[in-house]
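During the no-cost extension, the postdoctoral fellow (Dr. R.K.) reprocessed legacy sequence entries with the updated structure-token encoder. One reprocessed record is reproduced below for audit purposes.
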Amino acid sequence: MKRYIAILFLAFLCVSSCKKEDELQVLGIDYLNGKAVAVRFRTSVQHSDIGVFLGDESETAVLGEIQPWENIYQFRPVVPFTSNITYTFRRKDKKVLANFAPIDQNSGKPPEILAIYPSKDAVPENLLKLHVQFSEPMQSVGSALDYIKVIDNTSNEQVSIFLALESELWNQEHDLLTLWLDPGRIKTGLIPNKTQGLPLKEGHQYAIQFSKEWKSAQGVELKQPYFKNLVVVQRDGNRPKPQDWTMETPNPNTKDPLTILFNETMDAILAKETIHIKNEIGEEINGKFTLLYQETAVRFEPLENWDTGKFKIEVESRFEDLAGNNLNRLFDKKVENFDMDREVLKEIEFLIK
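Re-encoded structure tokens follow.
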């Protein structure tokens, strides 16, 4: 009799598990520094057939990776989940398997815009990019341009100057956004340039407004609205010339900074990414770059004391000024006009003694 009951019980368990074979159980959300960076779950569904979607969305999945984790699974999004927003696990056939909503573990401190580059107001008519540095990762929902308004104060009208991109140009941490002014309107001879003209007009003044409603990845609005003024001057038709740069060299056996002065404002992000300091045998000196004087100079602070001897500043050819002119070419120039054999100065030597 007991054996018969046991068989019936096992049969019941089997039927119950068969009914739930397509179910998914959310086990928990993992947080790091207040940000929801992963969700753990258990499922009998093939994990390669599962996607995570935002709310009622069923076409475009959240970018990320599902990984086995201690006999269960973990989904880690490329950008932390936004708090107080519902996410959905779905199969390939769009069937909903489970929902979850990260909570806000932040201290409640609102995000801020720390810097907008170029930091100076005067920019060339052919300005190519703006960089916006936030205090923390921002939301990946919707378009950044929904929170940005540009007013031409000279003509007293709202204008569109930025290029709308399907994949916006955020850094990996999602706290630095690069905004391109429409290149098709900047390059002479292209149809957008002929029909619409340059995004910015020489002699005009513009006000760029960043809405307070722009939210962080945690769902918190900006601390306040932010503004950036542009005063447009004549176009920049020259490449950067490292041979004209000057420097302030450090003393040996110290961690004194090396200062490099460009004599014009350069692209803020590339100024820190494309310059390398190397010793006499080609080894790179580890240290930190800091922008100075409205991006007309950088300061390099080494991690270790300087030795005596010869050093060199190595500059990648993609180093750019505000108009996108790099060491090899002008941005507004046809490819067939490039002199590909022309040597470009990419190294500057200096001595510490």
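The chain has three domains: 23-100, 113-233, 242-352. The radius of gyration is 27 Å. The remaining legacy entries will be reprocessed before the final report is submitted.
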